[in-house]
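Students often ask why we bother encoding 3D structure as a string. The short answer is that it lets us treat folding as translation between two languages. Here is a chain of 206 residues written in the first language.
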Amino acid sequence: MEPSTPASAAPFVLPRSTGLIVLEDCFHFPGCFLPLFIYEQRYRQMLDHALSTSRLFCVGTMHDDELLPVSTAGLIRASKKRDDGTSHVMLYGVTRVRFTDWTQEKPFRIALIEPFHTLKQSSDEEMEAMKLEAMSMLPPATPECGEAIRTLRSGLCQMTCPDLVCDIISYHFIRDPAVLRRLLLEPYLEERYSVLIHELKKLRDE
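And here it is in the second language, the structure alphabet:
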């Protein structure tokens, strides 16, 4: 549960297309690190394609036999290839994207993508209040993961972007695939926080 930081201070330019690895109920969010073990031949090719182009690819999420139309463009922060051709990859979530079409389906998918913008209707003060409410409901530190939670909480306290805080808390603490699906697909930040706070309350009351 390490706090996540942006990959670079340079402006991020979203490419026109990106490769996909399709996984069942695997939800990646902006601001979060996702470790992956790449072993299938088609995804080895996808990784090579990403490393030779934008260093970006998406995790396409299969949920109830449906490929979700929204994902997170992930930047390859580390990739270590083993002697057998498999690779350990650390993927950093940069921004939500929507799939608009396919330019390739075999041996791996390549999707045309567009930004999936986060929408807000509330004032900065109201968003800050939602952020603080969600943070106040984080589970207490335990002997097993106390240091990790303290480090995560400290990192979140330093973040000024409520979008990022919501996504990072969702990624680390929500486990229900149906809820994660809602959080990933929801464009309005207020609704994301409403869902997140409701789920955190349920966790606290268990």
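Translate back mentally: The mean pLDDT is 92. Keep this in mind for the problem set.
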